[in-house]
Design brief:
Blueprint (H helix, E strand, L loop, with lengths): L1 H18 L1 H24 L8 E3 L6 H18 L2 E6 L10 H11 L10 E7 L4 E6 L1 H4 L4 H17 L3 H20 L1
Parallel strand pairs: 1-2, 2-3
Antiparallel strand pairs: 3-4
Amino acid sequence: MRKITLLILSLFFLTSVCSQTTPTVEKDTLMESLVTKYRQVFWDNIPMQKSWTNDYEDLFTDKEQITLDSLINLFENKTTIEIAIVTIDTIKTSEEKFDSLSLHIAQQWYLGKKDKHNGILIAISRGYRKMRIQNGNGIELIITDNETKKIIDKYFIPYYKKEEYFNGTLKGLKELMNLLETKIK
């Protein structure tokens, strides 16, 4: 009797395990489809800019966001240059489309003064370990892509590698502002 019960339980277990392989593939395909649709909806409906710092990845505390916003606000009042920071969770875009999304966000938020095109977007993704600085056309006349890359490599990235996102963003932001101030004098 025990052998028959054990045999029946074994058959039930094997049947159960084998029958789960096909739905897993279908679940993965369904999940990929849902993520793709979600990303398209996000692209088509970029949230409005809430403040200078828009943290969709929860990298910063409220106090850190206030600090960044205050610094950017003072700089904007002094120079008219608008700088926004956005953190982008991996659910909102694929790694391949991160750069395109950051440009799209900068355009949707109309960063910079209309007649000066002097906006800058700092886009960060902890999940993809990527960041990008999108300079408006007016900013490209002031600083070069090479200067921007040096700031990223020297001030942002070393802190990001240690997962100190606020410190890296603060240091990089200050250096970017210093460079801009020296160039516009």
